[in-house]
Amino acid sequence: MINIPQIKVRHLSLGDDINQVARLIYYTDEYIFPYLFDNDIKKGIPVLADMVKNNTIYNYNNVTAGFLHEKIVGIVISQNTPITIDLHEMANCFVRCGVSVGDRFAKVYNEYYKLLEDEPDGIYIANVCVDKLYRKMGFAKAMLNSLLDDKNTYRLETVKDNAGALHLYQSLGFEIDCEYPGFTEVPCYRMTRKSKIKGD
Ligand SMILES: CC(C)(COP(=O)(O)OP(=O)(O)OC[C@H]1O[C@@H](n2cnc3c(N)ncnc32)[C@H](O)[C@@H]1OP(=O)(O)O)[C@@H](O)C(=O)NCCC(=O)NCCS
């Protein structure tokens, strides 16, 4: 791994480059977001940016960002559970951006977002993404290390064949709980990093 002393990790604020955050959200999952926006990132960016500004799981308060020379090169989105997914608030982001809310949104809502409301107690990590040009340089690890502590239990999901993500999470103490058919039946792992507080 290359050591990058210039890396800065901090919470996102509304003055930051929200479109870059939206872009990184889009690239977090190769199944969900290209499907949701019909493979058109130009539709996805304004809608996801609107979600970052509004009361959705992608709200800027949930975003930890990695910066290199003031440029956002990575994001981690996490939220304490229970999570409430406001369907109307999400749909309004599409409407405001002139992107139609159709069957694709209904499918992603039913098969992904709605299920987040059943997450057990702890912290759910919804998105981890590093810009393609800056991968394997320690950004994801630095962002997650700034977030993780031994008090809380963290949960996340990853596509089974995502070797990079799997290696990253296991190196940070996450363990595989189970395999399940994720969105569009793609095999996924559910992973947990347990609290180290006794009795938890
Ligand atoms: C997965 C991802 C977030 C990793 O980010 P990154 O900044 O490149 O990861 P890091 O440089 O911090 O690497 C952390 C560890 O994982 C390893 N790793 C990273 N990418 C890897 C890959 N493609 N294959 C194997 N190992 C990999 C690193 O070597 C490092 O190992 P070490 O701690 O033993 O030295 C990045 O590849 C990405 O954004 N992918 C697309 C979106 C995605 O899949 N997100 C995860 C969704 S669950």
Account of the 3D structure:
This protein has a single domain (8-149), classed as Gcn5-related N-acetyltransferase (GNAT) (Aminopeptidase, 3-Layer(aba) Sandwich). A hairpin with a 2-residue loop joins β2 (63-68) and β3 (71-80). The chain is globular. With 200 residues, it is of the alpha+beta class. Helices cover 32% and strands 24% of the residues. The chain has a seven-stranded mixed β-sheet, with helices on both faces. α3 crosses α4 (87-96). Coenzyme A binds next to β4, α6 and α7.
Give the SSE layout.
Layout: E1 8-11, H1 18-26, H2 32-36, H3 41-53, E2 63-68, E3 71-80, H4 87-96, H5 103-111, E4 123-130, H6 139-147, E5 154-159, H7 163-171, E6 175-181, E7 187-193
Bound molecules: coenzyme A (COA).
Give unreliable regions as ranges.
none
The CATH architecture assignment turns out to be 3-Layer(aba) Sandwich
Number of strands: 7
Question: What would you call the shape?
Answer: globular
Bound compounds, please?
Answer: coenzyme A
Output the CATH homologous superfamily: Gcn5-related N-acetyltransferase (GNAT)
CATH class: Alpha Beta
Rg is 16 Å
Order of strands across the main sheet: 1-2-3-4-5-7-6
Q: Topology as H/E string?
A: EHHHEEHHEHEHEE
